[in-house]
């Protein structure tokens, strides 16, 4: 997958949902996985020609689970090549979640703590927006997670405004499929996830089930994405 195609889809999402305005300072949440690395490359390329001029930084939240030094060195080199300043925020999230709290279902607490560390670091750096690497498949899977486990018809928004923190979260990759991200990410360095709960989550379960259903209906994800991104197709009954 070529960057130009990803850039085109990301720009459409950014334009459709007015994610970026002139004078913004955007922090990319750089976990080092394929999604966040691809987002970083997209945002760095967009910054060069987008009519709304914005500043860009990258923030990696170190959860204290042991980052691979060689992989981290490659991530730093990528940021240097893209001319994006990188800030590493060291935390004890891993110790709190797995050792102190011994959480059996750690993902929710961990995600909240990582978001808090990312957002507070972004604010310290003078950023008013945080860009996350959620793609179209994340949007779809979150919808089914909410439906199956929370009894809600819901998913995350392209733009989330947090008024108390005077910060907005943007998701420029919501029109990009995970397979497109994976295709592009092969040419970039990746920081492997040290989390012991990786691949053993409810999200992974939903991902696997959707993959099974796609064997019978190859357009399944495409149809769900189309329904989610076109509100006029919401035919749910009105509340009493």
Task: Walk me through the structure.
The chain is α/β, with parallel strands linked by helices. It has one domain: Rossmann fold. It contains 9 helices and 6 strands; from the N terminus they run αβαβαβααβαββααα. Strands 3-2-1-4-6-5 form a 6-stranded mixed β-sheet, with helices on both faces. Helix 1 crosses helix 2 and helix 2 (34-47) crosses helix 7 (178-185). The N and C termini lie far apart (48 Å).
Query: What's the number of structural domains?
Result: 1
Task: Kindly report how far apart the N and C termini lie.
Answer: 48 Å
Number of helical regions? 9
CATH architecture descriptor name: 3-Layer(aba) Sandwich
Q: Report the sheet with the most strands, covering strand number, pairing sense and barrel closure.
A: 6 strands, mixed
Please tell me the overall pLDDT: 89
Strand content: 5-15%
User: Helix proportion of residues, in percent?
Assistant: 40-55%
State the CATH superfamily name: HUPs
Give helix and strand order, one letter per element, not per position.
HEHEHEHHEHEEHHH
Numbering strands along the chain, what is their spatial order in the largest sheet? 3-2-1-4-6-5
């Amino acid at each position: 997958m070529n960057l130009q195609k990803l850039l085109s889809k990301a720009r459409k999402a950014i334009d459709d949902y007015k994610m970026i305005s002139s004078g913004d300072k955007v922090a990319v949440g750089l976990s080092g996985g394929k999604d966040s690395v691809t987002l970083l490359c997209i945002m760095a390329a967009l910054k060069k020609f987008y009519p709304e001029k914005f500043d860009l930084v990258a923030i990696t939240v170190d959860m204290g689970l042991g980052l691979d030094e060689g992989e981290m060195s490659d991530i730093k080199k990528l940021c240097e090549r893209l001319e994006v300043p990188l800030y590493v925020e060291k935390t004890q999230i891993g110790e709190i979640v797995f050792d102190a709290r011994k959480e059996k279902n750690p993902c929710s607490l961990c995600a909240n703590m990582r978001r808090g560390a990312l957002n507070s670091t972004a604010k310290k750096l003078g950023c008013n927006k945080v860009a996350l690497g959620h793609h179209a498949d994340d949007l779809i899977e979150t919808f089914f997670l909410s439906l199956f486990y929370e009894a809600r018809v819901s998913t995350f928004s392209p733009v989330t405004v947090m008024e108390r923190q005077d910060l907005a979260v943007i998701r420029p990759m919501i029109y990009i499929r995970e397979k497109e991200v994976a295709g592009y990410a092969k040419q970039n360095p990746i920081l492997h996830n040290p989390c012991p709960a990786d691949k053993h989550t409810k999200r992974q379960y939903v991902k696997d089930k959707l993959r099974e259903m796609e064997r019978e209906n190859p357009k399944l994800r495409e149809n769900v994405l189309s329904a989610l991104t076109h509100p006029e197709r919401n035919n749910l009954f009105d509340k009493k």
